[in-house]
Amino acid sequence: MASSVFSSSLLHSLLFFFFFFSFSLLCNAFPLHRHRHRHPRFASHNYRDALTKSILFFEGQRSGRLPPNQRVTWRRNSGLSDGSALHVDLVGGYYDAGDNVKFGFPMAFTTTMLSWSVIEFGGLMKGELQNAREAIRWATDYLLKATAQPDTIYVQVGDANKDHACWERPEDMDTPRNVFKIDRNTPGSDVAAETAAALAAASLVFRRTDPTYAKLLVRRAIRVFEFADKYRGPYSNGLKRFVCPFYCSYSGYQDELLWGAAWLQRATKNPMYLHYIQVNGQTLGADETDNTFGWDNKHVGARILLSKAFLVQKVQSLHDYKGHADNYICSLIPGNPFSQAQYTPGGLLFKMSDSNMQYVTSTSFLLLAYAKYLTSAHKVVNCGGAVVTPSRLRNVAKKQVDYLLGDNPLKMSYMVGYGPRYPRRIHHRGSSLPSIAAHPAKIQCSSGFSIMTSQSPNPNILVGAVVGGPDLHDQFPDQRSDYEQSEPSTYINAPLVGSLAYLAHSFGQL
């Protein structure tokens, strides 16, 4: 009996030793701490919180009569007589940045990019989707007013030079609310085609939830694009005194015609637009090597958008746009033979000193959108023998967003209200001056400059606002007077909404 018990114990001991030894080998081969950091649920940032705030920002930029559900409560009604100088209703829309002018060109681009964010990643937004739709609708309601008359678009409300001579709350505005328009005699194909793109893209956002509104948007987009194409010319020719140097059209209008046609092709599926792109693509600069994407230059955006039609919808005639899009990707991704992009020592994409973050957010969005299209088509990008996968594109985009949110040498979040350290003195009139609730009396035109030049932090936190960002050396002074680095704008935030929705979903936060 004793011998059988002994042999059984020995067997158990040997088995235990074998399993323990095997387990140790496994642990050494696959260390647990390394595995944890590879886990797709590991995130250094709360992307969901950042997403909520990035959309909330738009409520702080609203012009017009604010709705009962307005969440940015330090703002009040403003610009309620906008348009009256020409007997038209132009109340509403957005102030583009830290001033009190309504510029139609960047407002339309903002609308297009907010819409594209929702089209590609809205399905991942959960509870924020309705807020994103409302942000788009605040813009499209205004753009419908601005395009109500055939062959006419009201493209600006407010005299920018006189507005910039004051530092006052939008609620106190007493600068001239001059209205500027384009028409057959003063064409503006750039702003008109961007407006058509905005209306067409937004129609896709509302197609299921409000089909009547979506049809109105797409009908207007068709009419506005016809006007843009028929009466050609840059809007900053006829309106140079009023729109330059603020939103001069430096890249011409060809890029907007291609971009507008691409959005109408997507929204209507009418072969007429595909034909237009095929016939006019090269003359409109489809193969240009300019790799900047922002409120002025749409070439890269059009390439990525049209590549989707080829990759996902299998529109063979748009085959070349995959090549054009790939060239853009190769110019961006570090470490391949065609890389041309400049990055700061801390890793931020750097295009220019004035409001650089707009290029960071727009580029990150394009990388994520293109990664989605490539994944659908089981394709990669080939950069002179170096293969760039969709996951590489996503990693590059994530790194840029993470830098923006605080993974940078200064440990500074460039989104106001996100994280423990963020800009406190942003170049923004409404944020920097005491609110109506705190100071009911009017603040006169020049009285606000003493606050603008002071070191005191802004009393009203414009939650979600993303500022122009650091310089080429990752430095950021946080000075209100430094509009290049400290001013937020709607077109910085608009593409970021889509990127944050994707990242929040990827890391299980939505």
From TrEMBL:
Belongs to the glycosyl hydrolase 9 (cellulase E) family. Keywords: Carbohydrate metabolism, Cellulose degradation, Glycosidase, Hydrolase, Polysaccharide degradation, Signal. It catalyses: Endohydrolysis of (1->4)-beta-D-glucosidic linkages in cellulose, lichenin and cereal beta-D-glucans. SUPFAM superfamilies: Six-hairpin glycosidases. Pfam families: Glyco_hydro_9. Residues 1-29 form the signal peptide. Residues 47-499 form the Glycoside hydrolase family domain. This is Endoglucanase. The active site is at 427, 478, 487. GO terms for molecular function: cellulase activity. Its EC number is 3.2.1.4. GO terms for biological process: cellulose catabolic process. InterPro entries: 6-hairpin_glycosidase_sf, 6hp_glycosidase-like_sf, Glyco_hydro_9, Glyco_hydro_9_Asp/Glu_AS, Glyco_hydro_9_His_AS. It comes from Actinidia chinensis var. chinensis. It is an enzyme of class 3 (hydrolase).
